[in-house]
Amino acid sequence: MMPPSRLVRFAAIDWSGAKGRRHKGIAIAVAGEGDSAPALVRPGYAWSRTEVLDWLLAADQEAPTLFGFDFSFVPPIAERGEYLPGENLPLEAKAFWAYVDRVSADEDLGAASFLETLHRRHFYFGAADGAKRDFLHHRVCEHVFNAAGGGKASTLYDAIGAAQVAKASFAGMRLLHRLQGSVPIWPFDRLLQGAGVVVEIYTRVFIRMAGLSGRKVRTKPQLDSALTALGSRPAHLDRDPNDHETDVLIAAAGLRRIADKEHYWNPSLLTPTLARTEGWTFGVV
Q1: Which ranges in 20-164 belong to alpha helices (H)?
Q2: Where are the alpha helices (DSSP H) in the chain?
Q3: Is 104 in a helix, a strand, or coil?
Q4: Best exposed site among 5, 31, 40, 243 by fewest CB in 10 Å?
């Protein structure tokens, strides 16, 4: 698969699966071409997930953009043969997104009820559910990331707390379902040259790529150091950012850095079957 050509903007979105209509955990940053510093979109604003969807569709019409979302696009299936074993559910990603969207009645593209009620037995909410290790299932790309020293990747069967990847990911699947036919989603769709594309990201990938060993960045000097390492001008913020803001600023610069590198679009273990069922995290090779 060749990298999409003529991408001129690089957007990173820190997502949220929290209940409610507006979410302080959502942040968006965009980097332009060259080495210009990435900038936050509506800094300090409490986004709704629906507003993010509307913003993305409008931004895609303005310029070919690489959009990176920090949530898991689909559950693991290679390990056990089913997303939710024992259920009569779709076995490919796009059909599974449609199912999640259809049965989740939560406001603002939320999916908490999917985990808490509809399919409760598959998710770990605490010690009453048994041994946590029994819920720690991962996709192939997460095993690759862990084996390369990336650390312990989260599993979307761990549903403790609103900030966990589980709630964010299933809410994100509702967004992905609604994007179909508008913007290609890698690696599930054929890339269109001269058009935008949506990818899954893991912000820690870009923090490590910048030479930082920690999971989070919370100071201006750390942020500017990371951006410089990724070939970007420093952000020169007038205050210390929160970790949602640094995650997306660093990821936007990182996406720009690797977007034209063919091997990132063709991970060696990404098979056609995985491209339909599990997907892949962009930046993991």
Answers
A1: 49-62, 93-103, 112-113, 140-147
A2: 49-62, 93-103, 112-113, 140-147, 165-179, 203-209, 220-229, 243-258, 262-265, 272-277
A3: coil
A4: 5
pTM: 0.95
Residues in the chain: 285
What is the number of structural domains in the chain? Answer: 1
Residues with Cβ < 8 Å from 45, sequence gap 6 or more?
A: none
Q: Which domain holds residue 210?
A: 1-285
Contact at 8 Å (CB) between 198 and 179? yes
Cβ atoms of 84 and 78 within 8 Å: the answer is no
> Mean pLDDT per 10-residue run, the chain (285 residues)?
85 94 94 96 95 97 96 96 97 98 97 95 94 92 86 82 79 97 95 91 94 83 95 91 94 97 96 98 96
3-state SS assignment for residue 116:
helix
| Distance separating alpha carbons of residues 150 and 38, to the nearest angstrom | 24
Residue matched to tokens 């999409």: 4
Q: Which of 202, 52, 56, 68 is nearest to 141 (CA)?
A: 202
Could you tell me if 39 and 236 are in contact, meaning their C-beta atoms sit under 8 angstroms apart?
A: no
Distance CA 184, CA 89 (A): 24
**Would you give the distance in Å from CA 32 to the centre of its chain?**
20
CA distance 229 to 249: 13
Could you tell me the two tokens for 163?
Answer: 């900030």
- Give residue for tokens 């041994």: 131
